[in-house]
Amino acid sequence: MRDNDETEFRGSGTPVPLSAEDERRLDEAVRMERVTHVEESEEALTQRLFRENSARVAMSLVDIAIRGSSERLRLDAGKYIVDRVLGKIGDDTHRADSPLEAMLRQMEVDVENAANAQPRK
């Protein structure tokens, strides 16, 4: 991790490997978590760290979907987000009352309302 909190990417979208210093910092951060939360099991510590950092990770994933260094990376990140939010096509989530159908119905209403709000020439 860099001090300015930016990650460098190669043209393929693959993150540059961590330096020895970055690896040391991560190891120290994990050690501090274990010392600070001695009562937590490894699983509980991991779940807590995921919970505490999930919003930032989600924003990073959205950023990759929007500004990723390759089309493939943007596509994969975008597909992951859509699948997590709306469910995979073919799953039970794609029924008349699914989030996808509700979103599409709302989009239709919004487009129709916007079209009707336009002044006629």
Number of strands: 0
**SS content category:** mainly alpha
User: Could you state the order of secondary-structure elements as H and E?
Assistant: HHHH
What would the principal axes of the Cα set say about the shape?
elongated
**Ends: how far apart?**
57 Å
- What share of residues is helical? 55-70%
Uncertain segments? 1-6
* Radius of gyration based on Cα positions: 21 Å
Described by strand count, sense and barrel closure, the largest sheet is: none
The chain-level mean pLDDT equals: 81
* Structure annotation, total helices: 4
Strand content: under 5%
Number of domains: 2
Structural overview:
This protein is mainly alpha-helical and 121 residues long. The chain is 64% helix and 0% strand. It has four helices and no strands. Helix 2 crosses helix 3. The relative contact order is 0.07. The N terminus is likely disordered.
